[in-house]
Fold:
Amino acid sequence: MTEDTDVTATTAGTDREGAVIDLAGVTFGYASTPVVEDVSLTVDPGEYLAIVGPNGSGKSTLMGLIVGLLDPDSGTAHLFGERADRFDDGERIGYVAQGASAAKEMPITVREVVKMGRFPHVGIGRLSSDDWAIVDDALATVGMSAFADRRITQLSGGQRQRAFIARALAGEADLLVLDEPTVGVDAESVDAFYDLLAALNARGITVLLIEHDLGAVVEHADRVVCLNREVYFDGPTDEFVDSDALARAFGTEARFLTAVDG
Ligand SMILES: Nc1ncnc2c1ncn2[C@@H]1O[C@H](COP(=O)(O)OP(=O)(O)OP(=O)(O)O)[C@@H](O)[C@H]1O
Structure:
């Protein structure tokens, strides 16, 4: 293998046992046709990685494979060194689904949602004062203390995302997995949201993001995986901007609007 030309060069030579995520040759299809094909991906602790690709390119499916909600047809998926589908250390992962829409049905307060983050540690209903301190600290970290007693159904999209991130923080997650977290969130809140993710990443939390806004990816993520069924690019964000992967994966009309040199 020639490391200079290998698109996975950023991950080559890593100790897979220490990896947060390790996919090797993963292929998956809902019917006979694969929607994710031969994807290999290793993510190390503390990385800030974005997965980009056109609509229907398999991004959410790949997330499902990463967090063990889906099983590969072939290849292997590991989380923190364990098979993803058998992974039972759920509190290590904070998964924020697209639009966090599940929250819309929940008639409970923000603090109660965040409290759930402690359940894997302490069991239902048995929070100590130390656990409550962790809950309140998580709320403060995401700037949601003032909304603690508000019903989750009465929040804006951006506030709801913050509440779900606070739940992951209360669970002391090592990995945050976010599927298009800023869909339906206003521009100002989007900036604040990315500031929050950067602060959490600076604390050592691994961030894995599916993001349709390529400008946001270029500005915030350190590493990009460009997917269209297969991996078209995997490497540092600045190399992605200079590569032709975007055009190849999205079609020739695709280009960066926010990263064009003036
Ligand atoms: N549950 C399902 N059953 C059958 N086909 C599915 C299912 N979920 C997704 N697909 C198909 O798999 C392909 C990949 O879908 P996926 O949602 O992973 O793409 P995506 O890149 O996340 O798309 P988007 O950017 O539009 O959210 C699409 O062709 C989609 O129609």
In short: The beta strands are 21-28, 36-43, 48-52, 74-79, 82-83, 93-96, 175-179, 206-210, 223-228, 230-236.
